[in-house]
Amino acid sequence: MRSLTPHELVAILEKHERWLDRRQGGARANLSMINLEGVNLAGVNLRQGKLSGANLSHCDLTNADLRSADLFAARLIKADMAGCNLSGADLRGVLLRGAKMKRAVLREADLRGGTLLYGGGGRDSGLDFYRPGGKKDDSPFATPGSGGSDLTDVTLSGADCEGALMASAILVRSVMKNVNLTRVDLKGANLSGATLSGAVMRDADLSGAALTGANLRNADMHGARIDGVDMAGADTTGANFARDSETLSVRIQDALNRHFTWINSGGSAGERADLAGADLSRISLAGVNLSGATLKGANLSYANMRDALLIMSDLSTVIAHDGDFSGAVFDGSNLRGGDFRGARMDGASFAWVDIKTADGRPSGRLWPANLATCSLTRASLVRTNFRGANLAGADLGGANLTGANLADANIRDANLAGAELKGTTLPVATPDDDD
Predict the structure, then answer these.
(1) Closest Cα partner for 260 from 271, 247, 246?
(2) How many angstroms separate the CA atoms of 216 and 40, rounded?
(3) What average pLDDT score do residues 234-256 get?
(4) Which helix (H) or strand (E) holds 102?
(5) Is the pTM of this model over 0.85?
(6) Whole-number Å distance between alpha carbons of 58 and 98
(7) CA distances from 166 to 107, 290, 341 (A)
(8) C-alpha pair distances (Å), 318 with each of 10, 46, 167, 298
(9) Could you report the per-residue pLDDT of 131-175, keeping only the tens digit for each?
């Protein structure tokens, strides 16, 4: 790998500026397979430059303009690329381990896999090098690779990566706070241990990606594809995994529309929704009225059901882990055997309902919400109302019950190990409770 003298590099950069401005004497910069390790290139304009296979490790590239540059299989290990503009750049197969890329712009950049096969001849050897597809190029022979670009330990906080191609990229332990990953292709990417708090991942494709142990606190993943994603040990507190109701099947959309008609007409039109076993995962139905609906065994994991009305509904054996049900009303509903692990249910109500007579008068008969054998481990239940609810055999291990109301609730055989009970109103013990 050849190095350049400072004078040679300055001459190349000056000619490249002329080429970009279409002035006489200009020439496109070709730094392919050149060793530039540690060189200060802060603010440099190498837009559309050719740097495939170049060694740019430890370089200062802060605020550099590398839009549409060819960086195929370049080495950028521990380079400082803060504020660097890499929009549309070819970054296939690059090594970016430990690079600092705060506020960098990678819109539509290609970070998929790639392999550089260097013949050792160089520009003066008389050898011709070709890209796949037969397009002649002065760069070494480059072919697509099975693995993605290596961004292990990279810092991308605040970066704009909208529309980038990062399938199979290695982003282990990467720091990507508040990064924009809208519409990014991250299929099969390895984001294990990554910090993605506050990241915007709307409509991103994360199919088959690994997010084990990742920090996804308050991440916006609205509309993101998460089929086959491994999120074991990930922190999803406050994360939004919702999708719009328009993405649901026609059958489910029709059932929801008929139910809304049934609610609004007081039962004289439409019909009660039967969504037993339906896949409503990541759905956004905040504030909707699904009172009286049948949702037995439905999948509501990661759903956004904030402030929803689910009074006297059947949610038995529902799968709703990591969903957001803050402020929702479940009064009198059947949630027996439901899976609400890690769900956010702050301020929700699971109170009893006063059954009315046929002429609409209170009967004095109270119908409690049934949460028997429910899993509420690690759920956030701050100021949640469980007054009179049946929580027999429920698992509340590690749940946050700060300020919750469990007065008159049945908590026989319930597990409260490790639960936060500060300010919690617990039911008064009776003699039978001590047996």
Answers:
(1) 271
(2) 35
(3) 78
(4) none
(5) no
(6) 10
(7) 11, 39, 31
(8) 66, 55, 33, 5
(9) 333 333 443 444 444 467 899 999 999 999 999 999 999 999 999
Using CA atoms, how far residue 394 sits from 56, 108, 411, in Å, is 57, 48, 8
What pLDDT band is residue 357 in, cutting at 50, 70 and 90?
Answer: low
For residues 251 and 65, the model is more confident at: 65
Measured CA to CA, the distance from residue 59 to residue 335 in angstroms comes to: 58
Tokens at 178, concatenated: 């508040």
DSSP code per residue over 120-171: S--TTSS--EE-TTS-EESSPEEE--SS--B-TT-B-TT-B-TT-B-TT-B-
Q: pLDDT (tens digit, 9 = 90+) per residue, 129-142?
A: 333 333 334 434 44
C-alpha angle 273-276-281 in degrees, rounded to nearest 5? 100
State both tokens at 129: 């090098």
Contact assessment for residue 315 and residue 291, using Cβ atoms and an 8 Å cutoff:
no
For the chain, the residue count is: 435
Q: What is the pLDDT of residue 128?
A: 33
Q: For the chain, report the end-to-end CA distance as a whole number of angstroms.
A: 81
Exposure string (b/e) for 367-398, b if CB count within 10 Å is 16 or more?
bbbbbbbbbbbbbbbbebbbbbbbbbbbbbbb
Q: Set out the domains of the chain in order of their start, with CATH numbers.
A: 247-435 (2.160.20)
Rounded to an integer, the average pLDDT of 94-112 is 95
Neighbour tally for 73: CB within 10 Å: 29
pLDDT at 64: 97
